[in-house]
Write a structure and sequence with these properties.
single chain, about 230 residues, alpha/beta, six-stranded mixed β-sheet, two-stranded antiparallel sheet, 6 helices
């Protein structure tokens, strides 16, 4: 069994009700649900939420909401892995035995179904992997990053890298925050996602955008509108 889990708590503070706020004509979470379903990579797609309004929206878009997440797993300090493990435990207690479980963020409107399909295939075909997760290349060499003091002065994080050419510095990547496909036992064992037993599925920079501020939201909508025009 392949299970897709979309965590979506109701208490977003920086952008209130972010998970169901209208984003280019649909509730934000609707785009993630549709991408998961259209990837044809999952036997079931669940939304884990503590919020009945989010649950109703999720079901409208075709996801299942088999339980309401307990309040102790819906605060500001609860990590994604704990939410995924709770959903897996619920599945096992109800005679479901998922072998592969993907965590898909509710705020990933730029996620494309093909990405999920390819990531899940990579995980299933390579038995040495615990996870396949979405990542993106840094647009600027992080080795040449700068600190800024309270007085506005600067110093290099790594002074030895400043005189080097960009092309002579190793490429670096960051978590794209869209999906994490893993083996059920890897989730249950709380194995770290960012480790040598994980594969980074690289996304192009124009399909990656954190959405934590009003400015982030606007930029994501503009990028998404370009995608819709190309479809």
């Amino acid at each position: 069994m392949r299970l897709g889990i979309i965590p979506a708590r109701g208490g977003s503070k920086r952008i209130p009700r972010k998970n169901i706020k209208d984003f280019n004509g649909k509730p934000m979470i609707g785009w993630s649900i549709e991408a998961a379903l259209e990837s044809c990579s999952f036997d079931q797609v669940w939304v884990s939420t503590d919020d009945t309004e989010i649950a109703a929206v999720a079901e409208k878009f075709g996801a299942k909401v088999p339980f309401i997440r307990p309040a102790e797993l819906a605060d500001d300090h609860t990590g994604t892995s704990a939410v995924v493990r709770h959903a897996i435990d619920w599945a096992l207690q109800h005679q479901l035995k998922p072998e592969f479980v993907a965590c898909i963020y509710a705020t990933a409107p730029l996620l494309q179904p093909l990405m999920l399909k390819e990531a899940m295939l990579q995980l299933q075909q390579d038995l040495t992997l615990d996870y396949v997760f979405s990542g993106c290349r840094f647009s600027f060499p992080i080795q040449r990053a700068l600190y800024r003091t309270e007085q506005g002065r600067v110093q290099a994080v790594d002074p030895s890298s400043i005189p080097k050419r960009s092309q002579d510095l190793p490429e670096t990547f960051h978590d794209a925050g869209q999906f994490y496909c893993g083996r059920t036992q890897s989730w249950l064992d709380a194995k770290p996602v960012f480790s040598p037993s994980s594969y980074l599925y690289e996304l192009p920079q124009h399909l990656v955008q954190d959405i934590d501020t009003a400015e982030d939201w606007l930029r994501a909508e503009l990028l998404h509108q370009l995608l819709l025009r190309q479809a």
